[in-house]
Amino acid sequence: MFNEIKDFAAPELDVYARTSEVQLLRYYEPEPGIFIAESPKVIERALNAGYQPISFLVEHKDLEGGAQEILKQYPDVPVYTAEYELLVKLTGFALTRGMLCAMRRNPLPSVEEICRNASRIAVLENVVNPTNIGAIFRSAAALHMDAVLLTGGCSNPLYRRAARVSMGTVFQIPWTYFDKKTIWPQDGMQLLQNLGFKTAAMALRDDSVGIDDKALRSEEKMAVILGTEGDGLASQTIADCDYTVKIPMSHGVDSLNVAAASAVAFWELGHR
Predict the structure, then answer these.
(1) Residue closest to 210 by CA, chosen among 169, 162, 251, 244
(2) What secondary structure letter does DSSP report for 56?
(3) What is the C-alpha separation between 153 and 159, in angstroms, rounded?
(4) Are residues 138 and 257 in the same domain?
(5) pLDDT digit string (tens) for 69-128?
(6) Domain membership of residue 75 as a residue range
(7) Based on the domain organization, do 161 and 38 belong to the same domain?
(8) Do 134 and 161 touch, CB atoms closer than 8 A?
(9) Residue pLDDT, tens place only, 194-250
């Protein structure tokens, strides 16, 4: 069902042009909202994970290109199309591989569901940059993490940029937020403990153990906890953890970006 875009003000284009990420998130409150997936690879991974498409926005040349196989599977879903320059003007940003898809969010599982069969998980504390969220998810999926948990201050993994940077791995690795009744860190730490996890705070402290410490790998269940950009983990979070872990560095460098640090931590601590 192809629809040539002739009117920028058409209400069916609002989700692509005039609705913020936060508004999309709350689109159907109290039910889960909407998100925008960008690029055929990300869209395909979302569809394979069971997310339902509402509509597609596709550059003319991609109707017979990267988008073609996806569109064939959903003949009843509206497809809005135009030349690249027009789509950029409509959306306000350069499209990656000429395709967007508005999709319904699925209800989030509980922390208990996410952790039921997990032995290595990542916990993100107030990581606010969508690019960092996406990069962390990509590393978590690639480097042996079984799930990702987020505190309420984190950017949403299904925001367009986060999902794109993750290369769609946000649809492959299980994740959820601590619910609003779970106060972080005290209640969250207790919940992780009840689920059998030892906790490792990634932080630069004099009492830290090296990331290659054998005791870390010997733990049956481990939660790797990473903090917000700039300030890192809250002092209370560090105090509540079983381990404080430091990545050894050289040349006077005292810290890594949280996304880079996550890749090192997941590689080292994801193996047993």
Answers:
(1) 244
(2) E
(3) 14
(4) yes
(5) 999 999 999 999 988 788 887 777 766 667 999 999 999 999 999 999 999 999 999 999
(6) 2-104
(7) no
(8) yes
(9) 999 999 999 877 778 888 888 898 999 999 999 998 889 999 999 999 999 988 878
SS3 (DSSP) at 4 = strand
Angle at 126 between CA 210 and CA 28, to 5 degrees: 145
The residue type at 2: F
Token pair in block for residue 195: 């689920």
Q: 214, 199, 41, 222: which is closest to 146 by C-alpha?
A: 222
Q: How far does CA 220 lie from the centroid of its chain? A: 25
Tokens encoding 51: 């997310």
Strands 222-226 and 198-202: parallel
Whole-angstrom Cα distance, residue 105 to residue 36? 10
H/E stretch holding 90 reads: helix 84-91
> Using only C-alpha atoms, what is the Rg of the chain?
20
CA-closest candidate to residue 266, choices 137, 140, 115, 134: 140
Q: How far apart are CA 125 and CA 20, in angstroms?
A: 23
Same domain, 84 and 125: no
Dist. CA 16–CA 102, nearest whole Å: 8
